[in-house]
Amino acid sequence: MTNPGPDIQTSATARWETSIDVPTIASRLRGCKRVAILTHAKPDGDAIGSTLGLARTLAAVGVEATPFYLPPWPYRFDRVVRNTPVVQLGADDSKHTIPWEPDAVVVLDTGSWSQLGGVEHWLHDHHEKTIVIDHHLHGDGDTAPAKLIDTAASAASEIVAGVSVEMLGLESAASLPVEIAEPLFMGIATDTGWFRHSNTKPSTLRLVADLLDTGVEHDRLFANIEQSDNESRLRLFACALSSLEMHAGSRVAVMSLRGADFERTDAQPGDSGGFVEAPLAIAEVRVSAMVTETDWGATKISLRSKPVGDEDAVDVNAIAREFGGGGHARAAGLRIKKPFHEALEIISKALAERVG
Ligand SMILES: [Mn+2]
Description:
Elements: H1 22-30, E1 34-39, H2 45-60, E2 64-69, H3 78-81, E3 87-88, E4 104-108, H4 120-125, E5 130-134, E6 146-149, H5 156-167, H6 178-191, H7 202-213, H8 218-226, H9 231-242, E7 245-247, E8 252-257, H10 259-265, E9 287-293, E10 299-305, H11 316-322, E11 326-327, E12 331-336, H12 340-355
Manganese (II) ion binds at residues 46, 109, 135, 155-156, 191.
């Protein structure tokens, strides 16, 4: 941190806990002229869905709001953006600046400095104006004085749905305009694995039913988002599958991708997203890891887990945190600042020890 401010580490607001409620957020944002909306680097469906949903809600009440996205941008979400003005920040500039002075800054779907790298210095300068809305178990409390953290929410989009209903003075999400409901549905659908993961609660499905009432075309969204791969991605998937190694009596599955695999298949860095789920299809597998070589001197690792028989799912968030990463109990990620082969050995050994 460059400028944490006086006593920020010891003050109550520096803890990762809620310090603002939905009505207060709604009234604060309603009083703004311009709002900057940020989310984590490499935005996923929930990051994009929650930011678009909030931006369109603010636009509906006459507040100018722009989402800014740290790279890389996942092309499969292009259609959902429609005509909402968004800014994709460039990849080559590690220190980004929002080109105008906002009255408030809202950070969605993260509250971790490690996921906000490109805008960290700018956020430090706008600390007092920042509101974090997130559903992750862990984050950095000093990212904002105002935080709304609901770890029971399936997605940040679920929390934003409440903010939208409040801001528009509606009785329920069933009355939202469809252009607001659509990205929020997308955020919840993608963060729950299309309503399969453990974060799918009865309350999630009730909200989703309300969002569908607005006219969201869920089958078209599914096709646009999940069935829009290019050929390179499928060929890269073949590379990942053929790299599969099993450890700890088939309780741990590890796949890996080298830089050369991306070159050979003409795939882009973001193209391996979701591959890590595939080995969970094997009955015995408790934990699946996807180990990816990068060209920036570190090795990227995604972890997933599932319950098997009467055994609970392994807490992969706890394992990721040992290496400075994090995420959710069944979906987490980390980086090891070692060359590929070394990192592959370290994580394979660590998983075999903890899951074996
Ligand atoms: Mn999320």
